[in-house]
Amino acid sequence: MLKTVDVALTVIQMFTKDEPEWSGSELAHKMNLDHAKIYRILETFESRNFLQKDPTTKKYSLGFAAWELGMAVYDRLNVKEFIQPILEELFQQTEESVFLTLLDKDEAVTFEAIEPDNKVKFSVTVGSRAPLYVGASYRSILAFMSEEFINSYLTKSELKQYTEKTMTNPEEIKRDLNKIRQQGWAVSEGEYTPDIIAIAVPVFDQHHKIIGSLTISGPIYRMTEEKRSEFISLLEEAQVKLADVIYKFPLKIRA
User: Fold this and answer.
1) For the whole prediction, is pTM greater than 0.90?
2) For the segment 79-102, what is each residue's pLDDT rounded down to a tens digit?
3) Which part of the chain is the HTH iclR-type domain (predicted)?
């Protein structure tokens, strides 16, 4: 047995549902190992995105790469059996595209999507990535990040103009983020894809930390004001159901 690999894997196995976060010193004490060795292991895992470090607490938690490995056994764990019916029900109620997006560092990743057949629709691919500043799906995530993260993100990111309606002014984006926080949902029109309206609600983990969003999207001509109001209510109902699933199967994915 390779001792170094064995120790590294033991470190990863310390991150559990009951103990999802550890500092380097806590792990060194718990495992009775040299601090320098533990930190080298943690930094290596962080560099490969198997772990992520909270900038405030300096504690580590499982990262997106660990989740991607977990996806290999996703169907066997039957998590999809709990998430899919929620999206299916929302799709049946709206007959529009429905998708669940998850946060990965400073990007949004499409986790699940259901789309109507034989209709004009907003097409989204599972696994596709998008920046956090564009449109309701992604700003509903950004809105609930820390102020420090938001300021840094809007300063350092290239705010690309995808359409003539894309918000690229940092102050305008911040005003919309404040509005999203106040009302609990987001709406955008033609920002990422022309002539498409998206309505989204944030998705939080069991510690009320933002991990993603749930979205309904469709062409402008079908998304009337009456439908938008109805869809917001349906999204909020689905949001509660998702929260219950996430509590049972924690998705520890955040920036």
Assistant:
1) no
2) 667 888 999 999 999 999 999 999
3) 2-64
